[in-house]
Design a protein that fits this description.
alpha/beta, GMP Synthetase, Chain A, domain 3, Alpha-Beta Plaits, seven-stranded mixed β-sheet, single chain, Rossmann fold
Length: about 300
């Protein structure tokens, strides 16, 4: 369609586009285009007109459960997933789409079927300014807790001195690595050897050094003395196990923990002060993911 436009040298284009956005003079419906060293910008008022291509909206109209990880998508919706699938293909240009039918085993590996595209559920995922190598066929990862992970790491940055932080279920490192970026003292543990390999790779990818070990935290927690902060991001773990571990911690230890329960849950942990409690998001029609920040009495 032919619309008004202005012509700006590429060296000044970004600044001018930002100014037009702030003043609401940019025609956002149309694509900006280049001609040699010049940038043609569609605007609301100009004496010059030119043919411009319309932007295709990438906004998803279907509300459902799906995740973007790296350059692929995972659909978690059990029914009606076909509508999400069609919209993802049309609007998101995915490299591949996978259908998630649940989590299997103690390593919580997703059961995935590729329903579109090529390759496996593997790639480099960007989160909170950092990069993570992921492979859903060998290690669990979900981007849904990116906001909570940022909140936990920033809380530790504000409050932790030189004490030891233990990330008991570290996975591929989306909590441990931001903590290491803050130059904090972190021990990362996971029982899945493949997850720890990816964690070590991600430390190198993000240029941090840290201690990572393969172990079942629920079996060795009594050996971990002198912890200033404990991160227990394992929401499917029985609350009784989490409470047992907390019971052995030193007085003053800060605990960040998550668990899944009924939305009206009023669970009270024993022997702690509750510093923060909130529902992170819905988990199923009848349950939600809860987050607690606790201090051992």
């Amino acid at each position: 369609m032919r619309v008004p436009y202005i012509k700006i040298h590429q060296s000044e284009a970004k600044r001018e586009i930002d100014r037009l956005k702030r003043s609401d003079k940019l025609l956002r419906k149309y694509k900006i285009k280049s001609e040699g060293d010049w940038v043609l910008i569609p605007v609301k008022n100009s004496d010059d007109t030119e043919e411009f291509e319309e932007n295709v909206s990438k906004r998803m109209s279907h509300v459902g459960s799906f995740e973007r990880i790296s350059d692929f998508f995972v659909i978690k919706e059990r029914s009606g997933w076909e509508k999400i699938y069609e919209e993802l293909k049309e609007k998101q240009s995915p490299r591949a789409i996978f259908l998630d039918s649940g989590i299997e085993g103690s390593f919580r590996i997703r059961k995935l079927d590729r329903i579109y595209g090529t390759g496996g559920p593997v790639g480099i995922h960007k989160e909170n300014g950092l990069r993570y190598a992921v492979d859903l066929e060998i290690a669990y990862f979900s981007p849904r807790l990116a906001g909570l992970r940022r909140e936990i790491t920033e809380s530790c940055h504000r409050s932790v001195n030189s004490g030891l932080i233990v990330d008991m279920y570290a996975g591929v490192g989306p909590i441990s690595i931001p903590l290491l970026k803050f130059n904090l003292n972190v021990l990362s543990i996971d029982m899945n050897p493949e997850a720890v390999k990816l964690l070590s790779k991600n430390m190198k990818l993000n240029k941090v050094d840290g201690e990572a070990m393969v172990a079942d935290s629920n079996q060795i927690y009594e050996c971990l003395e002198g912890m200033e902060t404990v991160i227990m991001n394992n929401p499917t773990q029985p609350l009784s196990v989490t409470q047992k571990i907390i019971g052995r911690l030193d007085r003053g230890t800060i605990v960040h923990t998550t668990y899944i329960s009924n939305r009206k849950d009023k669970t009270e942990f024993e022997g702690v002060d509750v510093l923060d409690r909130k529902i992170v998001h819905g988990y199923s029609p009848s349950s939600s993911l809860f987050y607690y920040r606790l201090r051992k009495k």
